[in-house]
Specification:
The chain has a single domain (3-71), classed as OB fold (Dihydrolipoamide Acetyltransferase, E2P) (Beta Barrel). The radius of gyration is 11 Å and the shape is globular. The N and C termini lie close together (6 Å). Strand 4 (29-35) and strand 5 form a beta hairpin. It has 72 residues and is mostly beta strands. It is 0% helix and 49% strand.
Length: 72
């Protein structure tokens, strides 16, 4: 079952810490957004393999609800 990691809030992508093929554990930080000058980490909801990364470092104007990472 695939787990889609959605952006929790609108903001800019500060750092992407995973790429397709990476193995992650539940709780691992996948990426960090900049939201109103604050760093907001997004974590893996479950263990698995990253199958898609739909964001890039430096991307601006991302909207809440956008699927940033998919974990299989």
């Amino acid at each position: 079952m695939a787990h889609e990691v959605e952006l929790q809030t609108a903001g800019n992508m500060w750092k992407v810490l995973v790429k397709p093929g990476d193995q992650v554990q539940a709780g691992d930080t996948l990426f960090i957004m900049e939201v109103m000058k604050m760093e907001v980490p997004h974590e893996a909801p479950a263990a698995g393999t990253v199958s898609a990364v739909n964001v890039a470092e430096g991307e601006e104007g991302l909207e809440a609800g956008f699927v940033a990472v998919v974990i299989d």
